[in-house]
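Q: How would the structure tokens look for this protein?
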Amino acid sequence: MNKTIISTTIKTALAASLSLSLASFLGLNYASSAAIITILNIFETRKATLKGGAKRSLSAILALIIGGLVFELFSYKTWAFGIYLLLFVPLSLLLKIELGLGPSSVTVTHLLSYGQINPSIIKNELALVLIGTGFAFLTNLYAPESQDELKEWIYNIDRDIKDILNFFGNTLVNHLDVEIYEDKIKKLEADIGKAMDLAIVENDNRIHNSKDILRDLSHRQIEMDLLKEMYEDLKEIPRSYDEGKLISDIIIDTGEKLGDANEMIKVKERIEYLNKHFRMIDLPQTHEDFAIRSAIFQVFRSLSEFIDISIDLNKINRL
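A: Here is the predicted structure in token form.
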């Protein structure tokens, strides 16, 4: 059981118990409804809890207004509840507060039990909503800190990216099979996805949010896509290709210098030089040679974009 599940479980039990205790202490009717509202209003993140609580509070107020008017006009009968729903459901969907359909309608059933509506009853129902949503939000002020875990994710992702680039470079001179690293690429892609999910939750939980980490991971995601493109292109270049050493060196160098903006600029200049070199040598004579040359240019393009991302990220993190 991970810490998010444990945290949510404890927060839900604590908040529901406290809201029920306070509602009972204040002598509110249907005090248990405060606990139910609390449970329904606890979401995974602070942002979601605040947004959901606001929608449910607005929904409850609207439901009481519509329910009170309907019952006063058509009497406090069960069939009048159907008329209330015919009005409240489409209006909730229109206002995009359908999240509160269930708990708000439960509140309206209290009016049926009272058989009347007056300021005291309205205060009772609004107090239940306020206590329920209030404790849900207060309890969610605590959220597990994930900054250190995210930094470790990024460190491991960067290490794997460098490892993959180094392997890609060695495939062209050491006669290694580039497809051996297919599982490594899939794992890296999955790790970036997991880190992104955690960063999104962290961003929604922090008052001083984690947009920087989310942005950094988005850059890694783009780098991942470029690695996948490079992987496909490298499969088209024979291990025995005469100019393989030149391509190998530049790929390995990219991995080793990753993160150093000044060195990355020098590597990019070398890539541009190699681009010119391959354009100046004899044109391909066969379809196979043409496919190889095309794959080489695609590798250079991916490396160049890879370096641009690294340089941009380095500049942003210095600000």
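Residues 3-139 form one domain.

The CA atoms of residues 172 and 239 lie 5 Å apart.

Upvote if useful.
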